[in-house]
Amino acid sequence: MSTAEPRSIRIFDTTLRDGEQSPGASMNLVEKLEVAQALADLGVDVIEAGFPIASPGDFEAVRQIAQTVRGATICGLARCNDKDIDRAWEALKPALQVRIHVFLATSAIHREFKLRMTPDEIVERAVAGVRRAAAYCDDIEFSPEDACRTEHDFLCRVVEATIDAGATTINIPDTVGYATPSEVYDRITMLRNRVPNIDRAVLSIHCHDDLGLATANSLAAVSAGAGQIECTINGIGERAGNAALEEVVMAMKTRSDYFDCQTRIDTRRLVPTSRLVSKTTGLSVQRNKSIVGRNAFAHEAGIHQDGMLKDRSTYEIMSPADVGFSKTDLVLGKHSGRAALADRARALGYTLTADQLQQVFERFKELADRKKELYDGDIIALVQQQMTTTVDPEWTLVDYEVISASGKTPHVRLTLRHGDQERTETVEQGDGAIDAAFWAVEKITGIEVVCKDYQVRSATLGRDAIGEVKLEVEHRGRIYRGNGASTDTVESTILAMLGAINRIAAEQTMAERNAGETAPAAGTVAG
Ligand code: KIV
Ligand code: ZN
Predict the structure, then answer these.
(1) Once rounded to an integer, what is the mean pLDDT over residues 103-120?
(2) How far, in Å, is the centroid of ligand 1 from the Cα of 173?
(3) Is residue 124 predicted with pLDDT exceeding 60?
(4) Do 110 and 146 touch, CB atoms closer than 8 A?
(5) Residues with a CB atom less than 6 Å from ligand 1
(6) Which CATH superfamily is domain 7-281 in?
(7) According to CATH, what is the number of the domain 395-513?
(8) Segments in 311-432 forming alpha helices (H)
(9) Nearest ligand, CA of residue 76?
(10) What's the whole-number mean pLDDT along residues 460-465?
């Protein structure tokens, strides 16, 4: 029997870069910092914090994450040109552990149609990019974009040259999600066999999910000897997304007998991190999503329930507690104190600062007055509402009154606070109370929006459950999200609406502050 330690696989999280490229998933600075801290607490090895040249907002997010988040390597993306690499370094340099990730497409399709460069020019540019980055720090990752559609000979040539130039990680992206598991296995094996200096770099895999194969392909790469997986929480990312972190990690853990690998991930933080990312990006997790979906551990069939009662291993290959689902649905009420609330929030995976606890506690008390018993779902809704609220929101709700009756035009009187001023408007228009609330918010804030998506769901069971509203609105061609939680769905709607309005207002303030700075580079989006 072998006594060798299982192989360690690095987890490179790109939720804040590739994940943020999911349509409609953009996050603001505060949200990115929160997600980055959650990723560090989860135990990822590398956080790809953004693409600093892409916009002043991206630059600032990478810089602040580099300055404040500890316990993981902070990485920034750059194309193989001096401006991108210098800007990435500028943002990353406050970090204690830094990686610069440079990329250049290598496949014939990209060379001919996108870059219009010859193979020699590609090698020269890739080597120059890696050398420039290596002059700043020791940890350099190079990605031959669209590697899985690149000719073997040329891919070997680029990989060998970039390792010689200083790359310490070589990442093999399946940029368009085209490869199959056996092809990925063969490609990694081919690189390990044919590139003479391959032992001087860690081989990494980066899979997109266009054919639903991202997890299988990532695991095939590990079986072939890759030492790093690039992935995102909930599998969010460009188009159909990237390999889901929770899936690759739990596959390696649950089937350690097969993979003989380990990661540093604290798997009990998977569910809370998934919830945070879902709330922050506005991208819901489907109920039957592996590992973190609401139904992932729900047994419906009588035969299954019977088996579970006899022995859980009959139908359960992982324990819900191992991935962070709480075991009990403890009830809190209006007599529960701050400590009990903090305790429950901690058990659910949220560590609140004193300030956050105070604000959640105030909302908790208000809610406990309206609703006798508060369940885990209520606590999660309150905590997440607080955590995803813009710091120093421009507009906050003071109070409202709604009169709605069948066959009559609804009436809304709404008061909002802006700075130290309160503004009240009365509106008698709209197709119902919700529509009227939209009109009232627009009238007071002066920000007009078009509603693109509106969803309401209950956080727990029962008629008095918190109603969570999630909405997307369009303003000047851009999509903004907002969330609201209350036992009254009109209030949830106003709060969600204000969430979106505050994002618009914050962006306008940021744009005014950045006016005069360099405009974002064109064509900076990477898959
Ligand atoms: O999918 C891709 O090719 C990428 C690279 C930038 C690594 O995201
Ligand atoms: Zn990608």
Answers:
(1) 97
(2) 6
(3) yes
(4) yes
(5) 18, 103, 143, 145, 171, 173, 175, 206, 208, 526-527
(6) Aldolase class I (3.20.20.70)
(7) 3.30.160.270
(8) 320-323, 338-347, 354-370, 376-387
(9) 1
(10) 75
